[in-house]
Amino acid sequence: MLSSPFFYILLLLLSAYLLRRNKRTRNVLITIAVVSMLFFTCRPIYNLVSQMWSSGYPSSVEKGKVYHYGIVLGGFGEWDEERDRPDFSKHVDRLLEGIQLYHKGAIKKIILASDGSNRIPDDPDDQSGNPIGMRKYIERLGVAPSDLILENKATTTRENAQFLLEQFGDSLKNEHPLLITSAEHMRRAVMTFEQAGIPVDPYATDCIIKENEKNKKWFSLTVMTNWQSLLHELLGYLYYRLTN
Asked: 180: helix, coil or strand?
């Protein structure tokens, strides 16, 4: 909610209503709300900012280079226990690219980093749901059980780095793993792992494609939903940098 532009616009309008007796303050708040609405629904502005934020990271591996570990950050989906199958999100490219790199021989082992949805159940005898279901599914796609490693404690990117260090020790630093995540998430992810002392090479997935503005509406409410994801990364990056 805190990264949603709609939340702040609504807050401005609510403040304007509560302070309606003070006409000057009310008019200022309404003006800011209207300008914000135009800004966050303007497609060219969003495309420009998102391209500046997400570009610059490779989406391929240097020919002949082989990584011992490829770290696939979570957020690609959850396990549907009722239907006994994965329920993938829009970030499923992270997982698919990781599996593809594995089959190409670019990475030897896949590390699935938790986003909180694939944590180990409190009951150690519980073998259902995430991460057990997702592991079985990925193994059916041709990944050897010995080559699939789970990090299933973390709920944030910072915890991913911390728990992977606990799990692998300094060996992970020496291996210089390939970090596989969305282009939009990459800037924050790389900074977080480097802050933890883990040097990584980025591999960007679900990259934002530059749109042809000619046949697109300049203003759309759907753009505001895209801003929510981008602001989440911007605010997260700022927070991680300030707190180190």
From this structure: strand
